[in-house]
Structure formats: structure tokens, C-alpha cells
Design a protein that fits this description.
By secondary structure, the chain is an alpha/beta fold. Among the domains are: 70 residues, Ubiquitin-like (UB roll) (Roll); 99 residues, Cell division protein FtsQ/DivIB (Rossmann fold). 36% of the residues lie in helices and 23% in strands. The protein has eight helices and 14 strands. The strands form three sheets. It has a nine-stranded mixed sheet with strand order 8-7-6-9-10-11-12-13-14. A hairpin with a 3-residue loop joins strand 10 and strand 11. Helix 6 packs parallel to helix 7. The radius of gyration is 47 Å and the shape is elongated. The termini are far apart.
Length: 301
């Protein structure tokens, strides 16, 4: 049976409506996430840090590092050993046969070998250390050819010193040794200490010699500061320390006017700018004294 008195219904509690506005911290978080730098960090920076950290942890173990190095070394060796990188022939151009053999000996390369194993800079320095080589260019050509292009020094004079005869170029650099003067009679001769260092001035004197060129036996460096021009018939021209070419040109003008170099003259001293000084042969000196009325007195035993 139901009770006579009906149960009173409990009054309903009013339901609270949820406020759609975010909380204070949620609002700040949303604003922070909308910052461009934060979004860039989450999209790029954070994955990068994770990747770098993982790689760093992997490399921190020594067996992993050794295995990776061994694998990279093996791959490099296989790549360098490919046939298209193998050099089998060294070709020397621009050099005489004797110099070409010397260049090949200086290369000292155990061909065939990989082009990656050839130190072109060191090979060029070894070749340019040869006296007869002025410049060397090395290039690896297709077909496994190492091309060596040589610029050879041209000898322009023979230098006589205490060590013997030496061929020198226009800068005074040694080209090669020489056994006999007759082997290169086409080249002029210079002698004396320091003559090689003054080779440009010597060549200028040879060029300015003009009609005396055929009579020149050589140039002698005196005191490493000036030249003596040695001619045939034991004649010698003493040139000044400064402007020797101009002094020689004045002598040629004087010889053209008075023909003094075809007379009995032993020495022409041009070291004075004012006038040349002549030294005559004994016979010419005696003839000159007789012409001047000066008799030489000889004591007879």
C-alpha cells in the first residue's frame, strides 16, 4: 500500500551553465602557442634536438664510431680504385730526351696508381728542383695519363768559376754543367765570382759590343762590382762600376773615329768619366818614345 501522504518532491537544484571563456592559464597558454618563435621551435627545433641527441648518444659508444669509420674507409677505397681514376702513364712534353728521363726519375711514381694518391704539388716541386726546369705543370688527363709540361731553361752564357764551367740562363740560374768550352762555342763566356748574379748586365754588354763582338773572349767580374772586357790579342777594357754599357758605347764611338782598338794597345781604362786611359804594348811604347825623342838608356855589362 502507498502511504496516504504523498512524498514531497525535492526541489530541483538550478543547473549552472558552463562559462565558454577560457581560464586565465588556458588563455595564456593559447596566446603563447600562437607566438611564431614557439611554433617554429615545436615544428623544427624540437625534432632537430631529438635527432641530434639520438645521434650523439649513438656516437658516444666507441664500437659504433669504429664501425662507421671502417665502413666509410672501405667505401672510399672502392671509389678511388675504380678504373676511370687509375693513372697508368706519365707523358713529359716540352723537354729534351735527357731532361725528360730526369723528370720521370724525379716523379718516382709507382704507376699504375690511383689519381687520388698522386700529390701533384709535391711532384711539381720535385721536378722544379732540377736546374734545367724553369716551370712544370702537371695535370691528370682522361685515359689514365699524367701530363707533365716542362718549360726548359735556355742557356745564354757559360760561367767559369772555381767549380768549372756551368751553363746559365738569362737570370744567372744554373742550367747544367759543361765539360769543355768547345762544346758550346756559340755561347759567350763570363768569369769571376758573382758573375752569375750580374748576368742581365753582362748580356747588355754583349749586345752593345757591336763590331767588337767577334773579338770578345769573355767578360770577367772584378770584385763582384764591375766588369773587364777581354778581347783577343790580349787586349782588355776596364769598365766602370756604374753605367758600363754607356762607357762601352763611348769606346766604340772613339774607336770608330780613331781606330784605337786596332793599335798596339794592351789596356783601355774607362773607369774615369773624364777620359780613357790607354796602356800600350812595350814595342808601341818604345816607338812612341823614339818618336818623341826620348831614348832609353840601357846599362851594358
Amino acid at each position: 500500500m502507498q502511504p496516504l501522504t504523498a512524498l514531497r518532491a525535492h526541489p530541483r537544484r538550478p543547473t549552472l551553465r558552463r562559462d565558454p571563456a577560457p581560464s586565465k592559464w588556458a588563455y595564456r597558454l593559447q596566446r603563447w602557442m600562437l607566438t611564431p618563435y614557439v611554433r617554429l621551435f615545436l615544428r623544427t627545433g624540437l625534432p632537430t634536438l631529438v635527432l641530434v641527441g639520438g645521434v650523439g648518444i649513438w656516437f658516444s659508444h666507441e664500437p659504433n664510431r669504429l664501425a662507421l669509420i671502417a665502413q666509410l674507409t672501405h667505401l672510399r677505397q672502392e671509389f678511388e680504385a675504380r678504373p676511370e681514376f687509375r693513372v697508368s702513364l706519365a707523358r713529359v712534353e716540352g723537354a729534351s730526351p735527357e731532361l725528360a728521363e730526369a723528370v720521370r726519375a724525379r716523379l718516382a711514381l709507382p704507376l699504375p696508381m690511383s689519381s687520388f694518391d698522386i700529390d701533384l704539388v709535391a711532384a711539381r716541386e720535385r721536378i722544379e728542383a732540377l736546374d734545367a726546369v724553369q716551370r712544370a705543370d702537371l695535370r691528370v688527363r682522361s685515359g689514365g695519363v699524367l701530363q707533365v709540361t716542362i718549360t726548359e731553361r735556355e742557356p745564354v752564357a757559360i760561367w767559369r768559376n772555381e767549380a768549372g764551367l756551368t751553363l746559365v740562363d738569362k737570370e744567372g740560374h744554373r742550367v747544367a754543367g759543361l765539360r769543355s768550352r768547345a762544346d758550346r762555342s756559340d755561347l759567350p763566356l763570363v768569369a769571376g765570382e758573382g758573375a752569375d748574379r750580374a748576368m742581365p748586365e753582362a748580356l747588355a754588354l754583349f749586345d752593345a759590343a757591336g763590331p767588337l763582338l767577334q773579338r770578345i773572349r769573355g767578360l770577367v767580374r772584378v770584385g763582384e762590382r764591375r766588369w773587364d772586357l777581354v778581347l783577343d790579342r790580349d787586349q782588355r777594357v776596364l769598365l766602370p762600376e756604374t753605367n758600363p754599357v754607356q762607357a762601352l758605347e763611348r769606346l766604340l764611338a772613339l774607336d770608330h773615329a780613331q781606330d784605337i782598338m786596332n793599335r798596339d794597345v794592351l789596356t783601355v781604362d774607362l773607369r774615369s768619366d773624364h777620359r780613357p786611359t790607354l796602356r800600350l804594348t812595350p814595342n808601341a811604347l818604345a816607338e812612341l818614345r823614339r818618336a818623341q825623342g826620348i831614348e832609353t838608356v840601357e846599362n851594358e855589362l
